[in-house]
Amino acid sequence: MFIDVAITLLKIAFVFGLVLNIAGILGWAERKQSAVMQDRIGANRADILGLRLFGLFHPIADIVKVITKEDWIPPGGDKFLHTLAPFLALFTALAVFAVIPFGDTLHIAGRDIPLVIADLNVGILFVIAFGSLGIYSVVLAGWSSDNKYSLLGSMRAAAQVISYELALALSVVGVIMAYGSVELDDIARAQGQYVLGIIPYWGVIAQPLGFLIFFAAAMAETKRTPFDLPECESEIIGYFTEYSGFKFLAFWMGEFIEVIAVAGVVTTLYFGGWQVPFIDSQGFFVPGLFTIPLPHLLVVVIQVTAFILKVCFFCWFMLLVRWTLPRFRYDQLMGFGWKFLLPLAFLNVILSGVIFMSFEG
Amino acid sequence: MKIVGHKLSFLENIYLFEIVRGLVITTRHFFYNMFFHIAHLLGYQQDVEAAVTIQYPEQTIPVSKRWRGVHRINTRPDGSPRCVACMLCETVCPVQCIHIVAEEHPDPAIEKYPVSFEVDVTRCCWCGMCEEACPVDAIYMDSGKIPKAGYSRQDLVYDKETLTKEVPLPGYQRSLNPPGAGAPKVNPMGL
Description:
The complex is a heterodimer of chains A (361) and B (191).
Chain A: H1 2-37, H2 58-67, H3 79-95, E1 106-108, E2 111-113, H4 124-143, H5 148-179, H6 184-190, E3 194-195, E4 199-200, H7 203-206, H8 208-221, H9 245-270, E5 279-280, E6 283-286, E7 290-293, H10 296-322, H11 330-360
Antiparallel strand pairs in A: 1-2, 3-4, 5-6, 6-7
Helix pairs in contact in A: 1-9, 1-10, 2-9, 3-4, 3-9, 4-5, 5-8, 5-11, 8-9, 8-11, 9-10
Chain B: H1 10-13, H2 16-42, E1 72-73, H3 88-92, E2 98-104, E3 112-120, H4 129-133, E4 139-140, E5 157-158, H5 160-165
């Protein structure tokens, strides 16, 4: 009993340590990557004793600055809700990681340890539910700020997130049909099969259209460019106008954690989760030819590393999209969500159903 | 009002291919620049730029030969400032950034000299009228320097010693005479 709790705590420490570190580094990566994409150098001036380390001290400097800033609550605002909102944003973003499997079951000292914090049987529904709960932080932030522009910003954000949630959830239906489970661990495990004996049966092979819809809708859920109308710091005022100091940082970190969460979910649903092609629990193999046995621990380490690398790739890709595409206009955003993505998601569900039925039949 | 519209074709209208095209461009820039950044770190390909950034205080771009930088006071062969404290530059300065305190010079041929000659570069508008007004070519703006940032306003008021120490930018085309070459040869009739 005690050891189970200890193992779970260890897994939580591992996942949270990883996620929060990647989120911190993403703040640096966003500046540096955008700089490299635009032929610039990017932030590199923060130094400790002359050591610059490619500007890696900037996140630390940012955090020191933000923590020492005044934490201001609008006099007419609701103190409790105003304080609650940023932490709700962090919480909903972090809770998603509870169900994302980051490795195959680990057999060690006679125990079977599933490398997922909570192997819930609702799986992907949990992810979508917490994605929706994220709206509360946005709405409460706008509502409790005693600022009509913040309120308008939060309304805009809520409208956007609710609109894209439909397409998001519908695009997942295709994956559930393909693998016959809503449990993320089962979905990741099922992606270890092969089509025609050689192509890994990953979600993106089974659901190419579903992947595009899911990715677009999930980008919209993270409220980042090209869907960053909720914030839009440069033109129309966003929902966290009245936030300063650490609470602002909480929103900012929440956004990066959402990016990692989306990367994790996309990896799990569409890119094989922790699966590495041609490596399974027996070892490295070429289908139908030969197998090179590998020790169990090495396989698990390779798979966990592969999962982390895939997540990092998608974080990189989302930053790439964020620094490539301009922002949608509000009517374009709504039109894209309701008139394009949603019908496409319905079409995807129907097409997938027909295709899977005909293959089974 | 005439609205010039561009009818989007079907492929442009579904965004997807245009998005991919945009992503290809930024990805190409990313990997091209990353390749050279890493090569520079390892000491290769130093002559190919990975970024257009100029790291300002350490690197500067070459300025034009006619560009007006921080002021400089020319000196006589003995090292004293050539300024005769005639107050023409102080008078002509549109933002009143020059402050001269004059004193009688022991040499009766020179008559006056500046005890203090201060240029407040926070006020200076870099118009160059002081160097045009100067009858003895004492003040030039040919140092080719941008004033550095200072921690107080007083840091940015340059005194006589600072201004005398400045050296001209090589090949600067405003200089009528090289520094230390005696009084300028000016034809009052313009002939």
